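Now for my pick.
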Amino acid sequence: MPIGVSIVLYRTPVTAVAELLQQLLAQGARLVYLIDNSPKEFDAFKGWVPPPHIIAIIDARNLGYGRANNLAIP
């Protein structure tokens, strides 16, 4: 059964979770959403281009963990 995964980042560069992303996709995750919940002066995705099946969401506000996860639901 295909699954989707949502990961909220806060002042964490995407490179810190790169291995996790590869493992999720290898295990059958259909989509992985990365939500950057950091302040706008911190760029978690600096110099990184999301590969297929990974969707980066940048809001530039700290919405809180639950509300940030909700951005991936629609």
